[in-house]
């Protein structure tokens, strides 16, 4: 195998004292909901918000004095960029990071804040890799690959050492897969320590590149995904060899599952995870029967989610759960009606967040109007209670947030 347990133990010595030995905590509420004993390895607590620091330190520490003086270059959509930039700055190594045009602004700015030269080039990570290779050749820089490098894989494998030390009774480890660096390292470490343990990989449905590779399928990837950290079209060759031998299965998760997992972690565990970091939870939620009754760990591999995306995910989750709803109400356009509506909603226990009073642009009679009201509620049944109260008072009311505009709640 390209990487051994001894390589990972050596990497653990190299990175010791330079990164946080992250906690692996049990999640009681998610464990109860998912019917398994669930442990979360919180790599989102690292200084740069992701596990990528481990492999970056191990690689950077291997450079010769001449290589350090010339500098390094990496391509990344964000987390590898920050890991390399942060520790290169700490070690006094000049760093250039090539990032795709779609890289989240927060990750671009954080990378720059660590002193790196950031080059935005390419509409995909693969295009960024081509640009980075060319700059490395032109300027004599050492290329630090985000996943397809034995030293990087060994660095990521230290997560597996820590997990098995903290929770030797684990039966399954669920790991997100982009290029395959983290799952390869963890699988190598965990399987060497406990051969019976099962390693399950997770990929975003839009980017099933490793799944396709190991099943000899045509490589088809692309689309907008919340899990940009694992949106990789071309998986590694080093990592593929390890995954084919040590990873039991790869689960593909869709965007709604990733969104639901981000919400579950934030609300029930008070953990902020980016899409890639929540992918393991998404897989367990989507296939609970596979993990029922087992001692399971998953890696919250990153927490660098744009706050606007996080806000949208949380708000959409409230809508899906019926804890926020948008109602459209037909009224006669006369004084006092809006106050009556507010009274009915308040008496029913709802809280009005926003009101949009439309007279001119809706297909209603001139003496009538339509009101769109966004309300906070306890749950979906509470929405139905409020709508029933409105209809009992003579107001035709429709729920717009989860049903057809013309379908009344019954």
From TrEMBL:
> What is this protein's name?
Threonine dehydratase
Q: Name the chemical reaction catalysed here.
A: L-serine = pyruvate + NH4(+)
The species is: Limibacillus halophilus
Question: Do you know which PROSITE patterns this protein is assigned to?
Answer: ACT
Question: Gene3D superfamilies recorded for this chain?
Answer: 3.30.70.260, 3.40.50.1100
GO biological process assignments: isoleucine biosynthetic process; L-serine catabolic process; L-threonine catabolic process
| Family membership noted in the UniProt record | Belongs to the serine/threonine dehydratase family.
Enzyme Commission no = 4.3.1.19
Q: Which cofactor does it need?
A: pyridoxal 5'-phosphate
**Molecular functions (GO terms):** L-serine ammonia-lyase activity; threonine deaminase activity
Residue ranges of the ACT domain?
326-407
Q: Which NCBIfam families match?
A: ilvA_1Cterm, PRK07334.1
Q: Which InterPro entries match?
A: ACT-like_dom_sf, ACT_dom, ACT_ThrD-II-like, Ser/Thr_Dehydratase, Thr_deHydtase_catblc, TrpB-like_PALP, TrpB-like_PALP_sf
Q: Which UniProt keywords apply?
A: Lyase, Pyridoxal phosphate
Top class in the EC scheme:
lyase
